[in-house]
């Protein structure tokens, strides 16, 4: 720096003016660095966990897929046990244990069980020391891992239970739902804790595994080599042994056995890492992806900052040219200034990112991931952070550096305050912008409209075509922004000037923005990126939610139904916050017969009024000669929609029950409780079939209640509906309610995460607005002094800067919202890719209003300091500046 006097001059004149640009670099780099460090932390945690699980063995054979069935005993065959016994006989093998797996659960006092964890045999091939208690010795004893102790709150002496539900002989899936299974249980007492990493797990003796009600499933064969054994040689012998054993088996058993692979500990760790690291990578890549967006926005901010700096230094640069500085020196000094800013901002970003990653990993260790290693700085993260900061700032400073090199020495003689008028955008710029915009958005529209067909361009996936088109189209919008944004801001100022008290200030603010179209466009573009992304996610999430809800409404038009009617049930439903509305209908017992057989059920008499307040779709009531049947009947009584079904009311021959039988066309409903059939009065025989003497005598005792879920109910809350209904009947169907609540929470959660991440780009853009306005104060001191001299007060001068910031934000919001509506709809349409799903855009007006409000408020706050600085310019001091 000492050898570059131009750089020293630039840095002295810049002072604090580069602070906001450096902050933009730091925030962007921090996102990337935090993502890299969290990826490293998760990867190390997974590696340690898998290494701990594999420790103690030299070779491991995963046997999940080995299966066989003894037709005589009706018991599963443990092919892995026979294989392990044969491996034990090989030279160089010390221990070969076939590990099976089962599940133990903790039973509550009411008989309900918590989610269990996996158990397997104790084995000398496992590493780990007993931290508490002792090893399991008896068949009813279990040792648990330290993760089970800490994560599940278990203690020595607790009882865990293995359960199996056994149905009567011959009962299979699809058997009558009233067939009650026999629950076989075996209890195990916790006698020790094994100090090892990994998921919660238990360890039993061999006798303990045999004692489990359900036969253990094959998991793995763990091999420990003798001192003289070589892993490679034994690995080959075992592979040959597997082939020999498979030769004498039937085709299915042989196939499952020959797929086994003998892997060393290192190989098994690598394989399991590849299987389990997807979620960690996804989390980190998500942060890196949105960090890249903020990097792009910060590039716009930095470029804008340097352009304003170069403009404010025009006379200084011209004087330097006049005393001998060359064009190359001016360019080099500007690029070096950008590089220095990038290194400092990158270093700050590395520190911020490392701190954020450390904090997140510490929180994760204290809450849901006690084995997660703390995130620590790595050479890769530091190198990427510093390199990214350097590259972004140097590239962003490239165009301003070229402009700095073009400053003529004669500019030093130009009268202060006179700057050449900005020219109109070139024809080439307009043509390129139009081609990118129209071509890109045409690709987006094509992907949205043709996603469900086979005519997507080049046969590429529709979402890929849509994303590529959106990127091209948005780049086109940025190219054309200089043609649109300054006039839009000027017109906004003209409109705002019609308000009382803003006639002069608003018009001046609009005119000022139009006088410097490059700076205005760059500032608005940075905001435009963030607004468009946030708005797209809002519209996309709302549209996707509507599409999913429409699909759910088709599959589950009634979200819950119960085979009960009564005042107590109605009172509970009316008081519940989970229920929006409900209705009931009377029923009668009947025999349901079809082409596949017959069974007993209940026939419910409904009409359009029954569904008016509870259904999500219209036209649910069946027509004359039609019936809606519970899904249970499909495959048991008839096969598929449109089949004929005979409904016969209960009664004797003398009552004419058989003569009152009706034949209806069946349709299947997945939202009805078991044994339920819906019909309307038009399907019943006679003029008044529901009279007291008729077998078709409907009553509340055989009726059902239909329920509509309240808005905003989450998945955990929705499970409470089952508890409410269980107090009144065992037959109910709440699948629709659970599905709707689950979809709602998932979409809201994804939207929240994405909005938080995208908030970084908006923050960087707001910093850019503040920076640009702060730097523009330097160019406008004489303007402010002249306005003060002709009678404008300080408040009005500051107000003019604030209005300018709001106009810039409004222009970005207007264009960004229009793009967001289009891209949000097109994104969902391109991903749905189903002809029977019509995707109509759903605009979340409240969320968009919040976006507008927050952005305008942020812009006003960003203008606070620049407005205050300009309002303090004294007329005499400002007019005397050179």
UniProtKB/TrEMBL annotation:
The chain crosses the membrane at residues 20-39, 282-302, 340-364, 379-402, 430-452, 464-485, 521-541, 749-778, 799-825, 845-865. It holds the Pfam family FtsX. It is found in: Cell membrane. Keywords: Cell membrane, Membrane, Transmembrane, Transmembrane helix. GO terms for molecular function: transmembrane transporter activity. Belongs to the ABC-4 integral membrane protein family. Its main location: membrane. Residues 290-409, 756-875 form the ABC3 transporter permease C-terminal domain. The keyword Membrane applies. This is Putative ABC transport system permease protein. It comes from the Bacteria. InterPro entries: ABC3_permease_C, Macrolide_Exporter_MacB. The keyword Membrane applies. GO terms for cellular component: plasma membrane. It is a multi-pass membrane protein.
């Amino acid at each position: 720096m000492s050898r570059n006097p131009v750089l020293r001059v630039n840095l002295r004149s810049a002072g604090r003016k580069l602070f906001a640009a450096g902050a933009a670099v730091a925030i962007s780099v921090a996102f990337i660095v935090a993502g890299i460090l969290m990826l490293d932390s998760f990867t190390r945690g997974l590696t340690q966990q898998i290494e701990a699980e594999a420790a103690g063995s030299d070779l491991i054979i995963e046997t999940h897929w080995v299966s066989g069935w003894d037709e005589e005993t009706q018991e599963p065959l443990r092919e892995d046990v026979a294989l392990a016994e044969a491996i034990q006989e090989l030279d160089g093998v010390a221990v070969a244990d076939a590990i099976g797996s089962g599940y133990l659960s903790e039973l509550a006092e009411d008989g309900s069980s918590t989610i269990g964890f996996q158990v397997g045999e104790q084995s000398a091939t496992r590493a780990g020391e007993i931290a508490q208690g002792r090893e399991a010795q008896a068949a009813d004893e279990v040792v648990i891992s330290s993760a089970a102790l800490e994560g599940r709150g278990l203690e020595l002496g607790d009882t865990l239970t293995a359960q199996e539900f056994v149905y009567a002989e011959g009962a299979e899936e699809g058997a009558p739902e009233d067939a009650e299974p026999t629950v076989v249980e075996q209890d195990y007492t916790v006698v020790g804790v094994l100090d090892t990493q990994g998921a919660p797990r238990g360890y039993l003796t061999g006798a303990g595994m045999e004692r489990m009600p359900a036969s253990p499933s094959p998991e793995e064969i763990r091999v420990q080599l003798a001192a003289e054994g070589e892993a490679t040689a034994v690995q080959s012998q075992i592979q040959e042994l597997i082939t020999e054993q498979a030769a004498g088996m039937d085709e299915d058993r042989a196939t499952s056995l020959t797929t086994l692979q003998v892997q060393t500990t290192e190989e098994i760790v690598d394989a399991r890492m590849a299987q389990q690291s997807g979620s960690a990578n996804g989390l980190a890549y998500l942060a890196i992806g949105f960090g890249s967006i903020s990097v792009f926005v910060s590039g716009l901010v930095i470029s804008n900052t340097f352009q304003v700096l170069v403009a404010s230094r025009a006379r200084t640069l011209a004087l330097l040219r006049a005393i001998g500085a060359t064009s190359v020196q001016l360019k080099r000094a500007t690029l070096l200034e950008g590089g220095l800013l990038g290194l400092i901002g990158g270093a700050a970003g590395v520190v911020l990112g490392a701190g954020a990653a450390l904090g997140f990993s510490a929180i994760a260790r204290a809450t849901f991931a006690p084995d997660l290693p703390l995130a620590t700085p790595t050479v890769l993260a530091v190198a990427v952070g510093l390199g990214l900061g350097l590259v972004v700032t140097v590239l962003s400073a490239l165009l301003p550096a070229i402009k700095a090199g073009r400053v003529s020495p004669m500019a030093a003689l130009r009268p202060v305050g006179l700057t050449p008028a900005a020219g109109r955008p070139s024809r080439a710029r307009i043509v390129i912008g139009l081609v990118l915009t129209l071509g890109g958005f045409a690709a987006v529209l094509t992907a949205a409209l043709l996603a469900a067909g086979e005519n997507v361009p080049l046969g590429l996936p529709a979402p890929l075509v849509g994303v590529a088109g959106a990127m091209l189209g948005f780049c086109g919008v940025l190219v054309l922004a200089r043609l649109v944004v300054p006039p839009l801001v000027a017109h906004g100022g003209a409109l705002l000037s019609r308000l009382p008290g803003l006639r002069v200030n608003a018009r001046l603010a609009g005119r000022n923005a139009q006088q410097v179209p490059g700076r205005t466009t760059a500032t608005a573009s940075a905001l435009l990126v963030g607004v468009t992304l946030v708005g797209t996610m809002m519209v996309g999430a709302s549209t996707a939610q509507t599409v999913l809800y429409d699909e759910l409404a088709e599959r589950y038009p009634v979200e819950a139904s119960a085979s009960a009617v009564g005042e107590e049930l109605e009172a509970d439903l009316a008081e519940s916050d989970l229920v929006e509305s409900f209705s009931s209908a009377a029923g009668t017992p009947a025999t349901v017969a079809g082409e596949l057989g017959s069974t007993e059920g209940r026939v419910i008499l409904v009409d359009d009024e029954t569904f008016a307040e509870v259904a999500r779709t219209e036209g649910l009531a069946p027509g004359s000669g039609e019936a809606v049947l519970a899904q249970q009947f499909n495959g048991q009584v008839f096969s598929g929609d449109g089949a004929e079904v005979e409904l016969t009311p209960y009664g004797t021959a003398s009552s004419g029950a058989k003569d009152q039988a009706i034949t209806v066309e069946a349709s299947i409903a997945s939202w009805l409780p078991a044994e339920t059939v819906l019909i309307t009065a038009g399907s019943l025989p006679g003029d008044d079939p529901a009279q007291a003497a008729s077998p078709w005598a409907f009553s509340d005792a055989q009726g059902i209640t239909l329920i509509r879920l309240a808005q905003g109910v989450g998945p955990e809350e929705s499970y409470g509906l089952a508890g409410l209904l269980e107090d009144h009947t065992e037959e109910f169907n709440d699948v629709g309610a659970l599905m709707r609540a689950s979809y709602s929470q998932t979409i809201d959660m994804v939207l929240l995460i994405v909005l938080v991440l995208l908030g970084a780009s908006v923050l960087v853009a707001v910093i850019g607005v503040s920076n640009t306005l702060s730097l523009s104060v330097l160019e406008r001191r004489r303007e402010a002094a002249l306005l003060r001299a002709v009678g404008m007060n300080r408040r009005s001068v500051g107000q003019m800067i604030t209005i300018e910031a709001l106009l810039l934000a409004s222009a970005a919001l207007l264009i960004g919202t229009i793009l967001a509506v289009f891209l949000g709809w097109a994104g969902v349409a391109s991903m749905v890719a189903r002809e029977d799903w019509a995707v109509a855009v759903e605009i979340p007006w409240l969320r968009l209003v919040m976006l507008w409000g927050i952005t305008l408020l942020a812009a006003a706050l960003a203008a606070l300091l620049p407005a205050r600085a300009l309002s303090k310019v004294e007329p005499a001091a400002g007019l005397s500046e050179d």
